[in-house]
Amino acid sequence: MAQSKNIVWHDSKVTKEHRHELNNHKSAVIWFTGLSGSGKSTISVELEKELYNQGVRTYRLDGDNIRHGLNKNLGFSPEDRKENIRRIGEVSKLMVEAGLFTLSAFISPYREDRNEVRELMEDGEFIEVFVDASVATCESRDPKGLYKKARAGEIKGFTGIDAPYEAPINPEVTVDTDQQSLEESVETIVKYLKAKGYLA
Amino acid sequence: MAQSKNIVWHDSKVTKEHRHELNNHKSAVIWFTGLSGSGKSTISVELEKELYNQGVRTYRLDGDNIRHGLNKNLGFSPEDRKENIRRIGEVSKLMVEAGLFTLSAFISPYREDRNEVRELMEDGEFIEVFVDASVATCESRDPKGLYKKARAGEIKGFTGIDAPYEAPINPEVTVDTDQQSLEESVETIVKYLKAKGYLA
């Protein structure tokens, strides 16, 4: 552990690398993208628990802690949706600098918006996880009843119904929740993190 | 360490308390307020190094990483200054939930703005550190040449010259950099954190 060393600071500051040393793991944003009902949130919750059990430091950003706090002054216009993702990207970047794995679970349907977040980060610090599932599967799950409302025309511009979802072209990880169980999806991501040296 | 335990999760999520257990310390925002040149940034840098040496997880928010990132679309109008502090407060809150001590070093001259951040946090999670120094002292230091410009009228609305600074009424900690050395100031804050049980 770093605190047992006699560090000579030379006017420097605590860096990301110092934090990695203290934590004994690296840091990155794990960006879940996929349709409503694809399983982004569920997988991110389970992944966070698995990482915690392995002594890994994380934080999960989702609608609950972002839309009611940092982004409570944003609506759902195209500009506000873009600003929503931009702020989430900037906060993710700060948390990665702070030594955490940031688990961001948002539909984030547009390739351009996701790539802007990727551009914010250093190489290897943006892990795009495509949570793939057919619209039919997501609609059959419909955990929040949103597809039903979208089909009834009560919600306009719903991703997958009357607004596009742009799937990642070359994501770091794909999990197919039509086929894979929750446990298999989590294991796929953990294996990636270990194979790439993010975790000891 | 928590990872050695066999945790039964029961559908719960990783909480702030879990993170405190893993890190072996609590979390809070340490909010430095004071005039330009009072020593906020210098003290926060030194405090962060001292905490790191003790194995404590932190992150420092300052103009460099906030104004060029999350808040790059904000200017210096009264509304934008207020939104600047609001977003910093919301990010601080997320980082405290993530188990970190967030060291925020901004002039933050208005009591109301600081109190709004305090209100965001749980009891005991907002540690206001008043970095006290006379205008005369700060002006004699003038590390960025800003007082000179303000006196020459080249900068308008400069805190302490032609804009007010509202000192905290009941801050958790006061350091007086007219009197205390950098080391003494850092020690004062570390002692507070230990006395109040934030650190083991």
TrEMBL record, chains A, B:
E.C. number: 2.7.1.25
Pfam families attached to this UniProt entry: APS_kinase (PF01583)
Pathway(s): Sulfur metabolism; hydrogen sulfide biosynthesis; sulfite from sulfate: step 2/3
Annotated catalytic residues: 108 (phosphoserine intermediate)
Gene Ontology process terms (BP): hydrogen sulfide biosynthetic process; sulfate assimilation
UniProt GO molecular function: adenylylsulfate kinase activity; ATP binding
InterPro entries per record: APS (IPR002891), APS_kinase_dom (IPR059117), P-loop_NTPase (IPR027417)
Domain APS kinase: 26-176
Keyword Chaperone recorded: no
Enzyme class: transferase
NCBIfam families: apsK, PRK03846.1
Family note: Belongs to the APS kinase family.
Function: Catalyzes the synthesis of activated sulfate.
PANTHER family reported in the protein's UniProt record: BIFUNCTIONAL 3'-PHOSPHOADENOSINE 5'-PHOSPHOSULFATE SYNTHASE, PAPS SYNTHETASE, ISOFORM D
Listed name of the protein: Adenylyl-sulfate kinase
Organism: Lentibacillus persicus
